[in-house]
Design brief:
five-stranded antiparallel sheet; transcription (chains A, B); Arc Repressor Mutant, subunit A; DNA-binding transcription factor activity (chains A, B); DNA-binding; three-stranded antiparallel sheet; elongated; 340 residues; Enolase-like, domain 1; DeoR_HTH (chains A, B); homodimer
Amino acid sequence: MLDERKLDVLRAIVEDYVATHEPVGSKTLVDRHNLGVSPATVRNDMAALEEEGYITQPHTSAGRIPTDAGYRLFVDKLSTVKTLSPAEKKAITSFLAGAVDLDDVVRRTVRLLAQITRQVAIVQYPSLNRSHVRHIEVVTMTPRRLLLVLITSAGRVEQRIVEAPHDVDEQLIGDLRSRLNTALAGQRLTEAATSLAAVPETFPPHDRHLVSAIVTTLLEAFTDEVGEQRIAVGGAANLTRYGDDFERNVKPVLEALEEHVILLKLLGEATNPQTLTVRIGHENPYEELATTSVVATGYGSKSEALATLGIVGPTHMDYPSTMGAVRAVARYVSQILADS
Amino acid sequence: MLDERKLDVLRAIVEDYVATHEPVGSKTLVDRHNLGVSPATVRNDMAALEEEGYITQPHTSAGRIPTDAGYRLFVDKLSTVKTLSPAEKKAITSFLAGAVDLDDVVRRTVRLLAQITRQVAIVQYPSLNRSHVRHIEVVTMTPRRLLLVLITSAGRVEQRIVEAPHDVDEQLIGDLRSRLNTALAGQRLTEAATSLAAVPETFPPHDRHLVSAIVTTLLEAFTDEVGEQRIAVGGAANLTRYGDDFERNVKPVLEALEEHVILLKLLGEATNPQTLTVRIGHENPYEELATTSVVATGYGSKSEALATLGIVGPTHMDYPSTMGAVRAVARYVSQILADS
DNA sequence: ACTGGCACTCCGAACGCTGGAGTGCCAGGG
DNA sequence: CCCTGGCACTCCAGCGTTCGGAGTGCCAGT
């Protein structure tokens, strides 16, 4: 049905349209790409491509623009992910290497991603429920007030304050600290939650009240965030890159960026860092974002993704470059996190 | 020069223009506000106001719109800050009360502020150099790798990783921890930096190398962030509220939001929470933001501001309500922070 | 199967027109 | 002296019209 040349034509249309953001006609197409055939022939091919639903014309007697299906075919079959130049790679590593802690890594990543792709970048914080307990710290602030600090394997730190029912004994705190750490260190948060339940019983009845309070707060910290994932967003200024129809195109995206729940759905399930998820136009779950595409991938260790990162942009984006950048950044971040 | 009625006219013009975003003429003005005089009289007043530079007309034979000077006069003399309704106050407290830690407080504040003012909200994190050391924690992650956690009086947590020159002894760590805390707890970060310098000398020569490494990193954490202040931004979707001239109005703001340095300058010096800073149009330090106003104030304790929060929006915003909301939020946040 | 030619379509920029909202000014009246 | 009604003037925004160019579809010829 679609021979080689028709696919070439489609590829050329996508590339031209992405570059110019204007409907592309048969004549300009043969001028710019040397297809070796006449405009008339291209017109026939275009008619076929339109028949199949890969391109469309905004109105009769205008050039063609790709449909979502057209972009989909382009991404799947007609293009190869573009690798970054050595200079770019180097810039990435050196920029990320300067990070001082997890927060900083995420902030830098989001900035970096926005800069290279020139799109809006989204980075999900490493999820708590896939990471491990690295350390739990109990600190006395006043005799009646304790600070709990939870440090996870990804370097994420959660803190909670606990009001004690009565003045607490330093000895007890030290004891509790070491018992918590020996009981939980290295466990996944989900497992740790289970182990935690047994802790209060190992203490004498007099202290149990306090210990329970602490354990409860800790449990909350473990599970609380599972639903409410954290997210960083950057490069909103790149929204300029959508066309001019502010109301229809930009506004919905701007609104979505405020709603982290929506962003999480957009990013989708964290995939293996090798695999890129591309959602084109109406393929994504929100009607209002029909002119928006998402390119995302997981990051973390090689085998298992800790979280997802990606970009959001107009459907008429440069997919090969964008995909290359997202993939590269995901890899380097994974590496940085593994090292620290 | 400007009698009472002329000021009434200016007030009416500002209010109408803010409500409609359209140049307001003499007739509509007397219709909507009962000024008790005829359109012709108002026209004369308008001519005077224009003469003085408080209003202007986009083109001959159009209505008038306020100039930046007009808004300035309005804010300074012609309006009173609007207090929130009890329901709104209650909503604020209950929304902020749910916060679990400092990060959460800031996130909630920014969201809240954006929601009530329907503008872009900006909240600066409590600055390190004005807060005190609450606790310092040293955690062994591997025998060669230590995690330092600094907790400040505002609840802010900074963490750093230190590679030890040789395997470290648990005993030494415990010793160091308690010495650091007794030496530094309660001090301002700036003072603490000085006290810190003396710490290594109190250790035997064998350990001094390690201790110095830790102290150096800690010092960096103390001072590092002084320049690089953290900031949270929210409500970018409200940028829709600017007029339609996307390129001129919205784009520069969107770009500024990415540059935290610029935002800090916009917010300006943290003021006493009682005092509101209002920068109207070209009063702010960036040429591109000439159609943008900033309403900001400090928050923290009553006597001294920890940091600044505020909003950014079009010059034609509803100043009385916005100022009321910013002030109220600042107060409640200060309260929440004082309690925790 | 590809190509050149031709008639047709349709948008968008340019132009001119017109109604309405607004102004400035002036002379008259409390 | 300040206010008012009246009047001529200005100028934009919206609307309809025109027109050229870019693009298409189709057909007959190679």
